[in-house]
């Protein structure tokens, strides 16, 4: 009888363990997933944006996967195809191109997957579920005003543009020029794209300095380019003589402002954008279907006077 009882206990235990393991496998299989697609992870600012979006999604109970588009719209398209096939529930998206990325968002929408854009926008008002964007234009207006004061309303300057297919590039340029162009003694001697890339900005700036050695300021569409421009100025012996202005609020530029190497930057808040996008995705999955099409996130001017109030990518 004891042997029979032992066998029964073992059998019951086996059934329990099988059921429990099956339940775990089923739970894991049914766990919803959120994809985070970032334009490039070759820039610390975008690394921060992507990691914080994934971190927030995980804290809300989702499996996450981070995709790097490497500023390549074709690779971005492949990511979207894989995301659709793998059955993700939502996409937190930092586009490579305002026009070129629209088709990717539309095919996700057709597959029933909501897309929430972060920082960069797409040129469509009905493809993405919502777009959470820095107010680049207003931020650049503030930088333009400070730029004019720092150059005493006169002198020659250079502008380094970001990716030509990114709306932020032109919003920042237009915001800056809405101020600078009002001063006839301020002359832009060169305007060239450096693709938001530090190394390319250094090369572009070196080339510009050969043609225009006498400049007083450089306005850069992001902080990576500002640091590249500063390096070129340093190599040519002009650091400290030419004022450099960036846009982002990256760690190295906050340090550079403290050290007097960079004059100012526009502080964006990627944590706000990342967490808002992830929170919206969670709400959508749980039933909410209506969201604001665009949500602007303010950009703040950071200079030597107030830099102590800030850290990389935000306020202290």
What does this protein structure show overall?
- With 316 residues, this protein is α/β, with parallel strands linked by helices.
- The chain is 47% helix and 20% strand.
- It has helices at residues 2-30, 44-59, 73-86, 102-110, 136-150, 167-180, 198-211, 223-235, 251-258, 270-285; strands at 33-38, 63-68, 90-93, 115-118, 130-134, 155-161, 186-193, 217-220, 243-245, 264-267, 294-297, 300-303, 310-311, 314-315.
- The strands form 4 sheets. A 6-stranded parallel beta sheet has the order 2-1-3-4-5-11, sandwiched between helices.
- The longest helix is centred in the N-terminal third of the chain and has 29 residues, at 2-30.
In a few lines, what is going on in this structure?
The protein is of the alpha/beta class and 316 residues long. It is built from ten helices and 14 strands.
Descriptive keywords:
alpha/beta; 316 residues; disordered N terminus; elongated; 14 strands; 10 helices; four-stranded parallel β-sheet
**How many H/I helical runs?**
10
The overall average pLDDT, rounded, is 92
Number of E strands: 14
Structural class: alpha/beta
How are the strands of the largest sheet arranged? 2-1-3-4-5-11
Strand content: 15-25%
- Rounded radius of gyration (Å): 25 Å
The best one-word shape is elongated
Largest sheet: 6 strands, parallel
Percent helix: 40-55%
* First and last CA, distance: 72 Å
- Low-pLDDT residue intervals, each spanning 5 or more residues: 1-28
SSE order: HEHEHEHEEHEHEHEHEHEHEEEE
């Amino acid at each position: 009888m004891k042997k029979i009882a032992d066998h029964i206990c073992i059998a019951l235990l086996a059934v329990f363990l099988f059921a429990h393991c099956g339940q775990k496998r089923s739970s894991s299989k049914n766990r919803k997933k959120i994809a985070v697609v970032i334009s490039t992870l070759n820039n610390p600012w975008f690394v921060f944006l992507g990691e914080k979006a994934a971190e927030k999604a995980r804290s809300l109970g989702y499996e996450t996967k981070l995709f790097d588009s490497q500023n390549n719209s074709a690779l971005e398209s492949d990511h979207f195809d894989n995301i659709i096939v793998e059955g993700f529930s939502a996409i937190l998206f930092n586009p490579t191109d305002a026009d070129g990325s629209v088709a990717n968002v539309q095919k996700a929408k057709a597959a029933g997957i909501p897309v929430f854009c972060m920082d960069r926008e797409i040129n469509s008002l009905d493809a993405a579920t919502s777009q959470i964007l820095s107010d680049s234009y207003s931020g650049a207006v503030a930088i333009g005003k400070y730029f004019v004061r720092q150059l005493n309303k006169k002198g020659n300057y250079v502008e380094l543009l970001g990716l030509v297919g990114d709306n932020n590039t032109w919003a920042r340029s237009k915001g800056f020029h809405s101020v600078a162009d009002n001063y006839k003694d301020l002359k832009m001697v060169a305007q060239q794209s450096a693709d938001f890339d530090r190394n390319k900005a250094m090369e572009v700036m070196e080339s510009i300095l050969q043609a225009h050695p006498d400049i007083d300021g450089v306005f850069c569409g992001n902080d990576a380019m500002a640091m590249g421009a500063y390096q070129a100025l340093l190599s040519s012996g002009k650091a400290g003589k030419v004022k450099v202005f960036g846009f982002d609020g990256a760690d190295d530029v906050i340090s550079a402002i403290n050290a007097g190497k960079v004059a100012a930057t526009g502080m964006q808040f990627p944590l706000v954008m990342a967490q808002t996008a992830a929170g919206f995705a969670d709400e959508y999955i749980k039933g909410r279907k209506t969201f604001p099409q665009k949500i602007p996130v303010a950009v703040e001017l950071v200079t030597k006077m107030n830099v102590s109030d800030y850290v990389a990518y935000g306020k202290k």
